Amino acid sequence: MHGAPPRGGGASLLYGRPQAPRTLPIFRGRRHAGARRTLYNPGGNLQHAKVTVLSESPTSIGAAAPIAAETVIIGAGPCGLFQVFELGLLGISAHVVDSLQHPGGQCAELYPDKPIYDIPALPVCGAQELVDRLLQQIKPFKPQLHLGHEVVEFARRADGRFHLATAGGISFDAGAVVIAAGLGSFQPRRIGIAGAEPWEGNAIQYRIKNAAELAGQRLVIFGGGDSALDWTLELLSKAASVTLVHRRREFRAAPASVARMREQLAAGRMRCFEALPHSLIVEDGALRGVNIKSPDGAIEALPADRLLVFFGLHPKLGPIAEWGLTLEKRALQVDTEKFQTSLPGVFAVGDINTYPGKKKLILSGFHEAALAAFAVQHHLYPQKKQFLQYTTTSPVMHQRLGVPD
Ligand code: FAD
Hints:
Layout: E1 12-13, E2 50-53, E3 67-74, H1 78-89, E4 94-98, H2 105-110, E5 115-116, E6 125-126, H3 127-138, E7 144-147, E8 151-156, E9 162-166, E10 171-179, E11 185-188, E12 204-205, E13 218-222, H4 226-235, E14 241-246, H5 255-266, E15 271-274, E16 276-283, E17 286-293, E18 299-303, E19 306-309, E20 313-316, E21 327-328, E22 331-333, E23 346-348, E24 353-354, H6 362-380, H7 395-401
Parallel strand pairs: 3-4, 3-10, 4-7, 10-23, 12-19, 13-14, 13-19, 14-15, 22-24
Antiparallel strand pairs: 1-15, 2-7, 5-6, 8-9, 9-10, 11-20, 16-17, 17-18, 21-22
Helix pairs in contact: 1-3, 1-6, 4-5
The structure holds flavin-adenine dinucleotide.
The site of flavin-adenine dinucleotide (FAD) has 38 residues, from α1, β4, α2, β11 and α6.
């Protein structure tokens, strides 16, 4: 698909000067310390998918054989993480899979800095702080977190167990499944210009699979958040040229990153435009660049070998809708005793489920996880007598929590 030919006029160059790439310090900081990664690489970057092993035992990632699991939890949002805790108290282990590269779901992805005021006994708690606290709380249960992996396959096996597989080829043989997938799997927002699709994944990238292959390339980076700024600063020393394009003058990224980017602009090491992507420039079957459109409607042609697009992520229910489980308004129908879906052995907690009176609150998801854990236990070990024990007084719970009696 050929893009519109470059025309006269110029998109508004915010702080441009001819570029002279040179070695620059690599940005390594993040707004949010702790559990989050340093350079954000959104979505299921399968080659580089990260496994956070909170367990001492080795993970079988990459092995062809399915991972045998007592329970697989789909989604590492607050409810998926708390599900680990509630299962752990009952002596049940869990593998947790999330398509994001970091745990925390919406809290970490959509509003990490915002305060939450309705978590019981915490009058105020930052959203990322809540995730960090949950990770701390589940540590005794040594869950294995498979991050950067979207679960795309699900099937009930003839023996009553469940087959699950990720797009990256990890498979599980699970006794029970808890779907804590929230609003769905976070997917990158796409560039949104005609003819982009054939180039996506190669000349147009939404996640950096291999930064080394961008060396010596002319890069146009779209976006104004942390990912766009982090990668701009990271790649400046490696690329032939870097041009940053953002739809507004103001950037959402960490102020320190914005300040460092402005220094590079002032030194003429990169260019920056206030504009939107308009059309692709394709010649002889190769992507040669992109036309951008400034707020006054002017079109500017930017030569480029690669377009790196960081417009953020949005959740999509995705494959879960195809698994044959009963849905109501794109949520999984569950009962309110077990939080079981229409398929015995498959449970759903948090924002992904629906039942009369459902409220999409973290608090509700925590309650659901507590009851679902007992139901999972009964599904896995129907002969086992169930009784409620208090974490305050139960020696068994203390042992599981690693608390000395
Ligand atoms: P999520 O947090 O959505 O996590 C689901 C996870 O599942 C995601 O990480 C996703 O990547 C993963 N996933 C989905 N599908 C797949 C798949 N196929 N394979 C692998 N992984 C998958 N709630 C409150 O109680 N109090 C508040 O003050 C509050 N404030 C909010 C403010 C904002 C701005 C927003 C957006 C929400 C707020 N909420 C609040 C709602 C709260 O964040 C959600 O109720 C909560 O995050 C739901 O948790 P969850 O674990 O069910 O799902």
